[in-house]
Amino acid sequence: MPAPVITRFAPSPTGLLHLGHAYAAKVARDLAKAQGGQFLLRFEDIDHTRVRPEYYAGIEEDLHWLGLDWDGPALRQSARADAYAAALTRLQEIGAVYPCFCTRREIEEEIARMVSAPHGPEGALYPGICRRISLEEGAQRLTAGDQPAWRLDASKAIEMAGELTFTDLRHGRIRVDPGLLGDVVLARKDIGTSYHLAVVVDDAFQGVTHITRGEDLLPSTHVHRVLQTLLGLPEPQYLHHHLITDNQGVRLAKRADAMAIRRFRECGRDAKDVLEDLNPVDP
Ligand code: GLU
Question: Which domains are assigned to the chain?
């Protein structure tokens, strides 16, 4: 018997849900329910500087109004710091990460100095300044109390993880390019983790079998497959769906207020119509 399908919707409580979120939640819910599976809710609230407490209940209320009810209690990433710390320790032990003491400014200056700075799909990549500091110097700075970020050593990770792929229900089998995002930060100085690390740890913890999310996050999946492999976690399937845009083609995240689900509710719109307008013909 194949494992039951488990999907999740993972909003950040940093604002109200807009139509793009509703679509993402609906894609995840529909995929799970079509197979008699489970649809989970997870609050991605590691960045306490951006979280607003009122949005937890606000998001749940909007999901209920839309009829996108989830199974079981919502998981909050803010309660999972120990699990992220354990995963980071594991990556440190196998030498897949290194401490980075750079400030943003130092990174920008180094990139400006370079003749051909490495670039990825989201702009300039970290130019590897701290990858070059010796183990002794790194250890000294740690002992002296310098608070570092921890970065994936992408070239080492490639060697350790070997050739990898992932399966996307829209795009088919994709070969992982472990260097696509370069030496990404896996643990920020201020919060001790990152989107990448927390997502990978929690999707495994929650038993998510099918990860659905916007196609803007496709590059991240390359890093996530590497982390899953290094941490010995199972390989989920993926569905990177279209992003909902307004009629000028502008992504809704950029104009979230205008498209807030709350507004539709307040204007007396029917939740069913709101969801139907999201044309889920080809996710
Ligand atoms: N929290 C992310 C977002 O709101 C979703 C992350 C994911 O699905 O992996 O875009």
Answer: 1-79+245-283 (3.40.50.620), 81-201 (3.90.800.10)
Q: Strand 6-9 relative to strand 38-43: parallel, antiparallel, unpaired?
A: parallel
Residue having the nearest C-alpha atom to atom 6 of ligand 1: 10
**CA–CA distance, 80 with 205 (Å, rounded to integer):** 10
**Residue of 195, 211, 238, 241 best suited for mutating to test ligand 1, as the one with most atoms within 8 Å of CB:** 195
Q: Which residues line ligand 1 (CB under 6 A)?
A: 10-12, 44, 199, 213, 217
- On whether the pTM is more than 0.70, the answer is yes
Substitution candidate for ligand 1 out of 9, 199, 238 with most atoms within 8 A of CB: 199
In tens digits, what is the pLDDT along the chain, a chain of 283 residues? 677 999 999 999 999 998 889 999 999 999 999 999 999 999 999 999 999 999 999 999 999 999 999 999 999 999 999 999 999 999 999 999 999 999 999 999 999 998 888 889 888 999 999 999 998 999 999 999 999 999 999 999 989 999 999 999 999 999 999 889 999 999 999 999 999 999 999 999 999 999 999 999 999 999 999 999 999 999 999 999 988 876 666 666 655 566 789 999 999 999 998 888 776 445 5
Please enumerate in sequence order all residues whose Cβ is within 8 A of that of 271, keeping only pairs 6 or more positions apart, or say none: 65, 66, 67, 264, 265
